[in-house]
Amino acid sequence: MHNRSLPLLLCLSLTCICSAPRASDTAPEADARQMVHVDSRGVYRVVYDIHSKDEAAGISNGLYYARGLYEAFDKQGVKPAQMDVHLVLHGNAAHMLLKDERYQWVVNDPFAVNLNAKIVQDLIQLGASVEICHSTMRSRGWKFEDVLPGVTIVHDGYTRLIKLQNDGYAYIGGF
């Protein structure tokens, strides 16, 4: 009788051990860390250095992320009027600020539409200063009338970026 109860006892013990809650199965303790937010009463000055032709779905990565910045600040209670944003497009990104007729010539597609025009107008309406480098324009044979409405033409991208950084604007590059 002793030999028969041993397997039953072992089986019951294993069942209890296997069905006991493990540490990973229990509800985690509340995380004591706090999320860091920006000051919703602050004023934020930012300059984007957009010089790459990198895009997704026909939209400049730099313009896309600049638009996302407004959304991120809005989620933290910062309104567009509290932001002073400059987007300086130069080099390989400058063509993203052209009207369709010139854009078609640049991308060598007579049916192309500059999908950046909509986001540029949205950014301008939010208060951003969208700026194109005149040195890039001149080197590529573009005229003032080739540029989208509302876009500011600056002497050159590099000195504009330096001036804004000297004036205390936070630099966001890599686009």
Question: Could you describe the 3D structure shown?
Answer:
- The protein is 39% helix and 17% strand.
- The protein is α/β, with parallel strands linked by helices and 175 residues long.
- Strand 5, helix 5 and strand 6 (152-154) form a beta-alpha-beta unit.
- The N and C termini lie far apart (79 Å).
The number of helical runs is: 6
Question: What fraction, in percent, of the residue positions are helical?
Answer: 25-40%
Instruction: Give the CATH superfamily.
Output: DsrEFH-like
The overall number of domains is: 1
Q: Which architecture would the CATH scheme give at its second level?
A: 3-Layer(aba) Sandwich
Q: Note the gap between the termini.
A: 79 Å
Spell the H/E element sequence.
HEEEHEHHEHEHE
Radius of gyration: 28 Å
CATH topology: Hypothetical Protein Ychn, Chain: A
Query: How many strand elements?
Result: 7
Q: Decide which structural class fits the backbone.
A: alpha/beta
Largest sheet: 5 strands, parallel
Whole-number mean pLDDT? 89
The strand line-up of the biggest sheet is: 6-5-4-1-7
Strand percentage: 15-25%
CATH class identity: Alpha Beta
